[in-house]
Amino acid sequence: MGKLALPTIQITGGRIIDPAQGLDHVGDLWISRGRILPTGGVNEEAEVVIDARGKIVCPGLIDLHVHLREPGNEEDETIATGAASALAGGVTSVACMPNTIPPIDTQAAAEFVVLQGQRARQANVYPVGAVSKGRKGEELAALGQLVAGGAVAFTDDGAPVANAGLMRRALEYSKMFDLVIMQHCQVPELTVGGVMNEGFESMRLGLGGMPAAAEDIMVARDIRLAEITGGRLHIQHISTARSVELVREGKARGIKVTAEACPHHFSLTDECLRTFDSNFKMNPPLRTAADVEAVIEGLKDGTIEILATDHAPHAREKKMRELDQAPFGIVGLETLIPITVKTLIEPGHLTWPEVIRKLTINPAELLRIPKGTLRPGADADVTVIDASTTWTIDPTQFRSKSRNTPYAGWEVRGRAHTVIVGGEVRYTLGGIVREGVAPAAG
Ligand SMILES: NC(=O)N[C@@H](CC(=O)O)C(=O)O
Ligand SMILES: [Zn+2]
Ligand SMILES: [Zn+2]
């Protein structure tokens, strides 16, 4: 669809929340030809009217940590199904990890991801390039070429950059592009054979443990490396109390370190493994209640400025293997909003504007992408959230190709109602008044 064909959209009567502008008020939001219009809109009838009374209208959510599995594991997810899953979760932009087969470690590989994202016409898809060639942790990948191919950050996620010398060079070199190095912090030698958090529960269950220290030690090392290089370090899926403390200290000392937390790390604990259900197996593992509390505290005081899902789809036959054989990871995009509502908003830890900030302008600024705000002239990526609707999480209804969620059957509140990307309604639960052809139900 050309820009001229994009409709004028009026979203009426919603609670407009845009942390980037400090906005939180009830009103109308106007969109035309793919862009946000100034308040008051245009002097014409809108072609599409979305009734947002009682709902939240915010910048399209951004999830900077997803695994889309293409190329190489299309039985788990494709860029198209993952980007459709994003929309169903209210997410209009995703940054996808390079642990595909082959990995995203060249310009051509990054361009392929961008192209597949454009073809899919679902959420915007931004590739994250590998730090090392083949994600082998030996030689630096051609970071400049990756940037030319569209990479917005670098990581070897799925594995850490274990070699301190390589990590130092990556932090040094990435300064040239002002891009962030995202790190899966974990000393590999300390987690060999691990299935879950090391502690009372793993001992009781007789399962191999992954100590919190494996994460803490690498977080400490990398913050120090960020300090001596002046590079930008981003801690992925932070999960331990000590790591949160280290990031807090690092920030206080003026080091360029940021962190993200995932819903499972602030909603579940290692006690869930008593079921031996592989849907509770992820990396980093579910930790103790004290760690969950510390992560929530970090979210509250701003130490952790980003929410991300680490959406990690795995086909049923893989995830159904015995616990120690099953792969790590859970799908996350379609449960992001309700689990955040249940565990952060309803208990009063964070307000809606605080949550939305961590899902819009904060990740946009981290990736240096021109997204995450409803400022006039901005790309019209908008999420309308029905914050009060109650529903039951049913994995068979997911747009994702995979169903590996620990939240099946949970009674929850809040979900994306309508999602607009580039001025086009790409997902809706219905209720849109519009001339001409109605958009396909998401
Ligand atoms: N988080 C996970 O448990 N799994 C991720 C890898 C990763 O994020 O490290 C995956 O790719 O499946
Ligand atoms: Zn990881
Ligand atoms: Zn990941």
UniProtKB/TrEMBL annotation:
| Residue ranges of coiled coil | none
Gene Ontology MF annotations: allantoinase activity; dihydroorotase activity; zinc ion binding
Record pathway? Pyrimidine metabolism; UMP biosynthesis via de novo pathway; (S)-dihydroorotate from bicarbonate: step 3/3
Q: Which CDD domains match?
A: DHOase_IIa
Q: What class of enzyme is it?
A: hydrolase
- Which cofactors does the annotated protein need, by name? Zn(2+)
Superkingdom field: Bacteria
Q: Where is the Dihydroorotase catalytic domain?
A: 54-241
Which residues act catalytically here?
Answer: 310
Question: Which positions fall inside the Amidohydrolase domain?
Answer: 335-427
EC assignment: the record states: 3.5.2.3
The UniProt record lists the keyword Phosphoprotein: no
Cofactor note as given: Binds 2 Zn(2+) ions per subunit.
Q: Which GO terms describe its biological process?
A: 'de novo' UMP biosynthetic process; purine nucleobase catabolic process
Catalytic reaction annotation: (S)-dihydroorotate + H2O = N-carbamoyl-L-aspartate + H(+)
What family classification does the UniProt entry report for this protein? Belongs to the metallo-dependent hydrolases superfamily. DHOase family. Class I DHOase subfamily.
What HAMAP family does the database record attribute to this sequence?
Answer: PyrC_classI_B (MF_00220_B)
Chain's role: Catalyzes the reversible cyclization of carbamoyl aspartate to dihydroorotate.
PANTHER family for the chain: ALLANTOINASE (PTHR43668:SF2)
Protein name, as recorded: Dihydroorotase
Q: Which organism is it from?
A: Paludisphaera borealis
